[in-house]
Design brief:
Elements: H1 2-13, H2 15-35, H3 46-58, H4 67-85, H5 95-107, H6 110-131, H7 138-218, H8 223-250, H9 271-280, E1 284-290, H10 298-318, E2 323-330, E3 334-341, H11 363-374, E4 378-383, E5 389-396
Parallel strand pairs: 1-2
Antiparallel strand pairs: 2-3, 3-5, 4-5
Helix pairs in contact: 1-2, 2-3, 3-4, 4-5, 4-6, 5-6, 5-7, 6-7, 7-8, 7-10, 10-11
Length: 408
């Protein structure tokens, strides 16, 4: 079986040499059966017959380049050979035009190849009937059957080649789609991790930064205030390290010991703790809840918490008054979240932003907008004409389209 496989691969690599070998084999078989031991019975010119047999078989060496010309020359030369040899023992020469028929059915355009192949078989059968008036004789019927078999084999080879080409194309297309899907999933996961790090760890680091500044300013004048600020720094640092440890654990390789499969996702049930932490850090928050509280789907619940957390953290970091108004309005189908900073928000240089200008380099605002829009909600953020900074998000209770990177 291995030897046959090697021969097939060698024939595919050296197709023209294989064609030459076929031509030599057919010619040798024809010459041996037609002339060996039958020199007296051979009619006509022996030389002409040999030349005709050589031509009928030799043109097979170029059958892949010129299949139609090969069929025409091979058929004509084979008939000349049969006429010169008297048909005695030389019928094997018909293997040459039959091979050419196979090539035409295999390589020529399908409909054209089938029509020309069938026409060639019919023409050769009629020629044989003229020489021997027996159109339905056994030999003629056998030739017609072999011609049909050669055409069918060539057409089958064409179909198999087309099928294999289609399979290879589909496999290549599937591989490209898998690669694109893998790159997309990697990008989505990177975006999700970036959002989680910004929303969770960034919030705590913002508290640490502000409280450290408070402690530094009050260290000499107000020891109690400095001590309280340092206590907030310690608490925020512990939370930041814990959340960072959870995120890093999620990135560990599968199979590592005690690696969690997901980071615990906060929700609105942790809102009181968040407000208490921010108030203890010096942010005055006025919170109102309108309507009957409705439980949100997990993705919407996480997004609502992150929007409130990021908005209040921005007020804490950038507000000139350290005041915020939080409003949660439960409607029939969605939750509306509004966070207002009455004092406006300062730029990096400490100046309040002008009306209508969105603070630059706000990754948190970009992340909030992406989260809300991915769930089919609406999001706006920016200064109002009166100088207050306004954030509004509308979240459906049961989002219909959930992006994979937002799954808790």
């Amino acid at each position: 079986m291995n030897a046959i496989g090697h021969l097939r691969r060698a024939a595919r690599r050296h197709a023209h040499l294989a064609d030459v070998a076929i031509a030599l084999a057919v010619f040798t078989a024809t010459a041996l059966t037609a002339f060996a031991g039958h020199s007296d019975s051979v009619g006509g010119s022996r030389t002409v017959a040999l030349v005709a047999a050589a031509l009928a078989c030799g043109v097979l060496a170029g059958r892949r380049r010129r299949p139609l010309a090969t069929l025409a020359v091979s058929a004509a030369a084979a008939e000349l050979f049969l006429a010169q040899s008297g048909g005695t023992g030389g019928v094997l020469v018909l293997l040459a035009p039959l091979t050419a028929l196979y090539t035409v059915a295999d390589l020529v355009e399908r409909r054209r190849g089938l029509v020309l192949g069938a026409s060639a078989v019919a023409a050769l059968a009629l020629i044989h009937a003229v020489h021997k008036p027996a159109l339905l004789g056994p030999q003629n019927l056998a030739f017609i059957a072999l011609g049909g078999l050669a055409i069918a084999a060539g057409d089958s080879s064409r179909n198999r080649r087309a099928y294999l080409a289609e399979v290879e194309q589909r496999a290549a297309r599937a591989e490209r789609e898998r690669e694109r899907d893998t790159r997309r999933r990697i990008a989505e996961e990177r975006l999700r991790i970036a959002r989680d790090l910004h929303d969770a760890v960034g919030h705590q680091l913002a508290l640490i930064s502000v409280q450290s500044n408070v402690a530094g300013q009050a260290l000499d004048s107000d020891v109690a205030a400095a001590s309280e600020a340092l206590s907030h720094v310690k608490s925020a640092s512990r939370k930041a390290l814990g959340e960072l440890r959870d995120t890093v654990s999620l990135l560990r390789q599968p199979g590592d010991p005690i690696a969690p499969t997901a980071i615990p996702a906060p929700g609105l049930d942790g809102l009181d703790e968040l407000l208490t932490s921010l108030r203890a850090s010096g942010l005055h928050i006025d919170c109102h809840v309108d309507g009957k509280v409705v439980s949100l789907a997990p993705a919407a619940d996480l997004t609502a918490y992150r929007v409130i957390q990021e908005s209040l953290t921005n007020v804490y970091k950038h507000s000139s008054r350290r005041q915020a108004r939080l409003t949660l309005s439960y409607d029939r189908h969605e939750l509306r979240i509004i966070v207002d900073d009455p004092g406006g928000q300062r730029s990096a240089g400490g100046h309040a932003h002008a009306s209508g200008a969105v603070p630059p380099r706000r990754h948190g605002i970009v992340g909030m907008r992406e989260r809300v829009l991915a769930l089919g909600g609406r999001f706006t953020a920016g200064p109002r004409p009166d100088g207050a900074f306004h954030v509004a998000a509308d979240l459906p209770y049961q989002p219909l389209d959930l992006s994979p990177e937002l799954a808790p």
